[in-house]
Specification:
With 199 residues, the protein is an alpha/beta fold. The protein is built from 6 helices and 7 strands, in the order βαβββαββαβααα. Strands 2-3-4-1-5-7-6 form a 7-stranded mixed β-sheet, sandwiched between helices. A hairpin with a 2-residue loop joins strand 2 and strand 3.
């Protein structure tokens, strides 16, 4: 039997955080699940999840409920329980160093100050974690929050214009996951990163 895939969206649980920048991982994974008629309504090991078959692959959709900084504890439990190889793990998360809506796929690397990724790397003992980074930008003069601390900024909501960008770019995440499941992280990086730069 083929090894399962684990798709993880990062965010914070609860209505208070539902539409904040830090929860873009939750938003994108829930969007993916809806497209696949998969309801993320089961609870296990500090996470909300569902299982679905996409083509020939068994795929797990996971939203850790530990709060962002402790995401690794939940992810590690799912990796161990379902025997997920690290190359079959894909994490979707926000990135303040990318402009709002810019998407970048990476196969490994440091956390770049992202506490959720730092926690996952610590619990898995590896930085070779495939990721889809979804840009949420930094505080700017244009947004009127240029002096807002980053930790407060990522817990703020998107403007209407930013939300439109998010909605428009969601299709790139959908395509990235499809390529990852069919071809792996290498082709996913090549195809998606080239496309994202042009758009």
């Amino acid at each position: 039997m083929a090894s399962p895939y684990l798709l993880v969206g990062l965010g914070n649980p609860g209505p208070k955080y539902q539409t904040t920048r830090h929860n873009i991982g939750f938003m994108m994974l829930e969007h993916l699940a809806r497209l696949n008629n998969c309801h993320i309504d089961k609870t296990k090991m500090q996470g909300r999840y569902c299982k679905h078959r996409i083509a020939t692959n068994q795929v797990l959709f996971l939203l850790p409920q530990t709060y962002m900084n402790l995401s690794g504890a939940c992810v590690r439990q799912f990796v161990d329980y379902f025997n997920v190889p690290l190359q079959n793990l894909l994490v979707i998360h926000d990135d303040i160093d990318l402009p709002c809506g810019r998407i970048k796929v990476v196969a490994k690397g440091g956390a770049g100050g992202h506490n959720g990724i730092k926690s996952i790397a610590q619990h898995l003992g590896s930085t070779a974690i495939s990721r889809i980074k979804f840009g949420v930008g930094r505080p700017t003069i244009e947004s009127g929050v240029e002096k807002q601390p980053v930790d407060k900024y990522v817990l703020s909501g998107f403007s209407k214009s930013e939300q439109k960008i998010i909605d428009d770019r969601a299709s790139i995440v959908v395509d990235a996951v499809d390529i990852f499941l069919k071809q792996g992280i290498g082709p996913c990086m090549n195809l998606i990163n080239c496309r994202a730069k042009k758009e």
